[in-house]
């Protein structure tokens, strides 16, 4: 009985943490990072500020947690790739898995970080964030599957992995909905990986 209660409490804790990330990111995007307070985030969540401190000790910790989350996802994809039979098709499958992992909230995160480069630099202390490191390692692993490994095909592979970032930037001054941005990124990624694989 106690174990089930612990699991329930942990589950609620994870839900509260994720809700705090979502609310914070929305407020940061709508009214600016500096203009958003922890109290506002807590009020939106319907909890007190002390309860929010249980999960995050400040706004930077919330942003850092979002970066860590994407870093985890990049590393999980890399682990998945390393468990699969090696083939050129794995390259295309892995790229599309990465693009398809994006949601409207994750696109909001890309936009927020792009709009706050100084915050990003402060959080990473000049080092590449874990998500960047994970994607670099993924690109290196996948480049071994290229039918013809040249500087150009390696660059194209990296472009395919970053197609979601390019789609967000391209749609910045439009009213394109997030699902269409993700669809555009997917088409671009498919086109680039298809070109790489067919040019051998």
TrEMBL record:
Keyword DNA-binding found: yes
Magnesium recorded as keyword: no
Biological source species: Leifsonia virtsii
Name of the protein described by the UniProt record: Helix-turn-helix domain containing protein
SUPFAM superfamilies xref list: Homeodomain-like
Binding region for DNA: 37-56
Keywords, sorted A to Z: DNA-binding, Transcription, Transcription regulation
Pfam hit, one: TetR_N
Top-level taxon in the UniProt lineage: Bacteria
InterPro entries per UniProt: DNA-bd_HTH_TetR-type_CS, Homeodomain-like_sf, HTH-type_TetR-like_transc_reg, HTH_TetR
Domain HTH tetR-type: residue ranges: 14-74
């Amino acid at each position: 009985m106690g174990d089930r209660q612990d699991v329930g409490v942990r589950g609620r804790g994870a839900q509260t943490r994720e809700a705090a990330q979502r609310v914070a990111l929305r407020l940061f995007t709508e009214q600016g990072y500096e203009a958003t307070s922890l109290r506002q985030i807590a009020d939106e969540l319907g909890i007190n500020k002390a309860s929010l401190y249980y999960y995050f000790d400040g706004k930077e910790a919330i942003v850092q947690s979002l970066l860590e989350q994407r870093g985890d996802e990049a590393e999980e994809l890399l682990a998945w790739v390393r468990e699969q039979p090696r083939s050129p098709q794995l390259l295309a499958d892995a790229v599309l898995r990465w693009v398809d992992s994006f949601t409207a909230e994750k696109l909001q995160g890309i936009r927020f970080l792009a709009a706050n480069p100084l915050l990003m630099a402060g959080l990473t202390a000049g080092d590449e964030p874990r998500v960047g490191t994970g994607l670099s390692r993924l690109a290196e692993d996948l480049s071994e599957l290229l039918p013809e490994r040249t500087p150009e095909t390696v660059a194209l592979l990296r472009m395919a992995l970053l197609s979601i970032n390019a789609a967000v930037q391209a749609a910045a001054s439009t009213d394109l909905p997030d699902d269409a941005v993700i669809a555009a990124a997917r088409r671009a990624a498919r086109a680039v990986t298809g070109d790489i694989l067919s040019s051998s």
